[in-house]
Write a structure and sequence with these properties.
This protein is of the alpha+beta class and 78 residues long. Helix content is 33%, strand content 35%. It has one domain.
Length: 78
């Protein structure tokens, strides 16, 4: 599960088994793991994060959306 981005306490990654799903990223901090679709950006699973943290995460993703999608395509050959 490659780490694509680290921003503050958050690690952005995807699982190698995610190939058959729409483009997305998982975000981890301690025991919380959220899942966000990337095109368009929308929450799929909050994974225990508070609403304010989800808003922070969505903001980070908005700033790095192209980079995250390129990493997905590079990894999965899309």
């Amino acid at each position: 599960m490659p780490t694509i981005l680290t921003a503050g306490p958050y690690r952005f990654f995807f699982y190698s088994s995610d190939r058959d799903e729409p483009v997305h990223v998982h975000i981890e901090r301690e025991d919380n793991i959220a899942k966000i679709w990337l095109d368009p950006i929308r929450l799929q699973n909050s994974g225990g994060f508070s609403r304010s943290e989800i808003n922070q995460i969505l903001s980070i993703i908005g700033k790095h959306q192209i980079e995250l999608m390129e990493a997905w395509n590079d990894y999965f050959g899309g």
